[in-house]
Amino acid sequence: MAGLMAGFGHYTHAVVRGIPASLAKEALRSSQTEVDLAKAVKEQEAYVEVLRTRLGLEVVELPADESLPDCVFVEDAAVVCGDTALITRPGAESRRGETEAMKGALKDLNLNIVEMTDENATLDGGDVLFTGREFFVGLSKRTNQRGAEILADAFKDYAVSTVPVLEGLHLKSFCSMGGPGLIVIGSSEPAQKALKIMQQMSDHRYDKLTVPDDLAANCIYMNLPSKGHVLLHCTAEEFPESAKVFEKLKDHMLIPMSNLEKVKVDGALTCCSVLINKKANI
Amino acid sequence: MTTESGADSEAKQPQENKETEKGKAKAASQPSQVAAEPALPQNQPEQLPAAVGHSTPARKEQEQQEEDLVSHRSSTSRLSRSPLRGVKKVKIMQCKVTLLDGLDFTLNVEKRAKGQFLFDKVCDHLNLLEKDYFGITYRDVENQKNWLDPSKELKKQIRTGPWNFAFNVKFYPPDPSQLTEDITRYYLCLQLRDDVVSGRLPCSFATHTVLGSYTAQSELGDYDSEELASDYLSELRFAPNQTKELEEKVMELHKTYKGMSPADAEMHFLENAKKLSMYGVDLHHAKDSEGVEIMLGVCASGLLIYRDRLRINRFAWPKILKISYKRNNFYIKIRPGEFEQFESTIGFKLPNHRAAKRLWKVCVEHHTFFRLVSPEAPPKKFLTLGSKFRYSGRTQAQTRRASSQIIRPAPFFERTSSKRYNMSRSLDGAPIMENHETLMKDNAADGEAKVIAKGDIITTVTTEKKAEEEKAEEGDAKKDTAETPEPAATSPLRQDTKDTEPPAEVVKHQTNISELKRSFLETDGSITTPGLTEWEKRLSSSPMRSPRSDEAPMIEPLELDTKEDEPAADETKEVEPKITEAAGYLVKYVVDSMTADGPTSSGPHGISLSTTMDDDVFMDGTLREVEEKTPESQDEVSERLVVKVSPGAMRQEVSQAISDKKGTLIILKDAEDKSDTEGKEKSAVPGEFKADEHVMRMASKEEEIPRADTSVVTEAQTTAAKMLSPKVEIKTDSMTQIKGIDSPKKAMASWISEEVKMETPEFISVSTKEVKDMKTSDGLQERAEIFTFKEVQSEQSKSSLTQITVSESSTTSLVVSTLECVSSSQKAPAGQEEKPVIEMEALPAKSAGPSSPDITAVATKDMPVIHTETKTITYEAAEVETNGDADPGVLLSAQTITSETTSTTTTTHITKTVKGGISETRIEKRIVITGDADIDHDEALAQAIKEAKEQHPDMSVTKVVVHKETEITPEEGED
């Protein structure tokens, strides 16, 4: 029987992209730090490996593009929900080119492609939190109202609420979904503030899981056949306190993912993949 | 008999005049038409088949003709009627009601018939019992859709033009599976299909496909490649822009539904439709304070603010203290957060006055329907301030209760174009419809249970929330308490809780009529439809609006509240979890109610008083009223307090109350702590906002205190005093005096008077000025005295009453409880009031002391007969939030209602005042409970509070005075 909005976290495919050498020097970052390219590549490999081997997803790996130093962060280039993919218009000028390859890949997956052509619109996928019942779009340096409007138009079934992102790069720099109806949120004041706004705007009820570190609040939740609740989250090495919090989740299959290098260029766990549920196609 | 269905009206035409006359004759004497017509529905099924099938063009034409005939006819009849006019005053009007299936239902009604009459006729015609979700709309001069007010005459609503109406869903049930009857769901489906096709309910391609496929299944039955032409779907409408591709996808899905009954298909349709974000959202065009075009969406959970397609804010009903309109402005006043002292009022500009009023009404109705247990009484006539409009129908809670009583067999009804389905069915030798229906019903139930069991978490969550809300209505405070434990059962676990509930409901599917989510389909179909286009327009054409980060600012104050509320709440909660969970990690499994209620969860919520300012009348209210009123009311109170001799009928109530009792103790502690805090802060005097927070939070909890404590109090008067402050003790003493004075005679009378700020209204009007002046520390004392004084008075009346009661009835015990519920809107003006409030606690004590002697004397003289022991305990929530100006306020309305049962007399005094633009509603309830000595007073009190909360879920109890008078046996009397 067809049902809408069922199966939050069900994914069959993932789109990822390689790390260009240019990432080390040229990728955008909010704090000046040295990135160890080799380590970053290793991290990415491990990440892809988990998706492919451990979780059994069909992984589409796009080649890195040296002219697009941030291209590994594919999440920003597209928002996929159900069988519709919105190709974004990233807020950073230097990243606009990233959407091309993404569009091609998603087309190949037979998704309905909606493009954001309005030149006044910007939207990074990192600002889009889909809870399973609705969207929250962070209005940040990278995403504006117009971008959010277009997203709302692309996914008409869902309420789309805007949330100002006052600190941090993206909305998902301090939150993400940790399960159906479970929002993982950082404990910083801006994060908590944003959460309150989300609460107020929502008709739905969520639980929240607060972690001490904002960045640790970015994790990847999946609900996979034969695996159940799966959570990719930060390692204890990176965020010991937050990792402890995740370890308390008894119902989840927990997979710590090292992200030490990518985080230096503001890359969180969700940034590195676009997850797709092909079976959602009706 | 004067009613004609469209189908046979033609045939009847020749008789038209005759019939009309007959009708007139009848109607002239009385509204006998009403009585005469119920026969109609039975005929209906026979007529229907002929009328059905609007989708075929031929039909349409026929209807068209009919319409022409109709108009023609009505003009002739008018002519022929005119000579009679002088004799028979009743005029008959022909009404045409467009039903959800697109057919017109034509009937004649008296011109002065009320909206309800028409509505009932239509529901009869439709064989619809769960009708509270529906309503009738008409177009006004501006072609805007308005809801017909059932309590008003039709002719006053239809000023011009033909009497054309439409039958629509008015309140969209949030959970259609809880509707009792399939036929109700069917009509809801029809409405939603229209919503979808018209674009009022936007959805994605995938959703169009799914909804379309269920529509096909319910209308056409199983897919049958032999019987159905390849383009069989093209006659059905699924989407505003229907494409071949869509039809193909629909067909693909349709093929997979073999064997699904129409009722099941509709259930699936609704299960999907209800999740759409615009389901049941009634949109109104408006502009915000900066002139930016927005849309206001009224729905079951509150008010949604959209810009373009984006939701930019949301105000859950509990967050809204007041809604009002003035000229073309619409205002909502928002409850301040725990850490905020100021309420904020947000204004929106509507296109015109009518639009503002329409929006206001829709809000009042939705709020009442979805949030209240029973409708608010309309303001009394003689107070001409503000609109008298109130929602007069049943609330969701009431309609659910009512429909759980529906016991008829599933009615036969024909799905408009589903004849094919039936035919093919019957060819197969399928069971007769009735049996079929019943089968379907079971299926539906099973299916539902499955769904739930499978754990669509979100859905279940919603369900639970609803359930919670209902519970919350029983006792808001309970919820707060409940929430603390809940954290333990975090997200994943939570399913369990939910799972349990829905199934239970499913089992007895009669019981649950659905939750309604409000939504108006249509209040403004016309508005909405254009609205969508506007959205589109705006989407493509408004680049300048993009940098909307300033949206947030507007929102922010509100949000801050919420935020602050919640953090506070969270923290409290956190503490406990942490302890339990072993040190270290910060897992906060805090249940954040992201629901509508979430924000308010900390307080007594749900108060959205729909006090209106109708136009300008509002502010120039009546100062006098206040003064006059209050005394009057007191008199009334005393008069009415006349006791009912009461057997122990209260037992039942009591038992109910017992459950609530648990956890009270904990609360109690809280309260005590807090009052301590307050005490300290009081001494600090000025700006104590923090105290407020506590207070606020206490408000809900405090209500409960009495339950646990009363017993204690009763036993030791001083104990009671402890609870709040030393001052209380004084009062108690005085009370004791009284007791001593009273004459012999054994009587055990206990009073529980939960007293609330009944005085407040008075106080405000009378003494506010002084307060203002004195605002300083002295002012406080002054006030206190004032209060005291009043207190005394009221006390007196009570006691005398008690005595009277006792003597007359010779009842053994008396419990008087006065519950005052103050709507949170009262939390008005700032710092100044705060102090007063706090002092109020003190008041009773002091005032009682000095003045009581006199009173006592009086009382004693009058009724020396009985020797009683009187105890008075006062609990107050010092929850007033202050906003600054201590302006006296204008009395908007005051009313006193008395109701009696065998053992209790309840006097309710409702006062609405406006202070500095803030309206405040206070309800004081005095409940006199008379009964045997062995009445459990605690429970009686608990029950009283509970009831008060149920009746006014939106208000908070701010003060509870328990006055217990006991007849003393000689021996006892001696001490």
TrEMBL record, chain A:
It holds the Pfam family DDAH_eukar. GO terms for cellular component: mitochondrion. GO terms for molecular function: amino acid binding; dimethylargininase activity. Coiled coil: none annotated. Substrate binds at residues 28, 70, 75-76, 95, 142, 265. One of its GO terms (biological process) is positive regulation of nitric oxide biosynthetic process. The active site is at residues 170, 271. SUPFAM superfamilies: Pentein (SSF55909). It comes from the Eukaryota. Keywords: Hydrolase. PANTHER family: DIMETHYLARGININE DIMETHYLAMINOHYDROLASE, N(G),N(G)-DIMETHYLARGININE DIMETHYLAMINOHYDROLASE 1. Belongs to the DDAH family. This is Dimethylarginine dimethylaminohydrolase 1. It comes from Haplochromis burtoni (Burton's mouthbrooder).
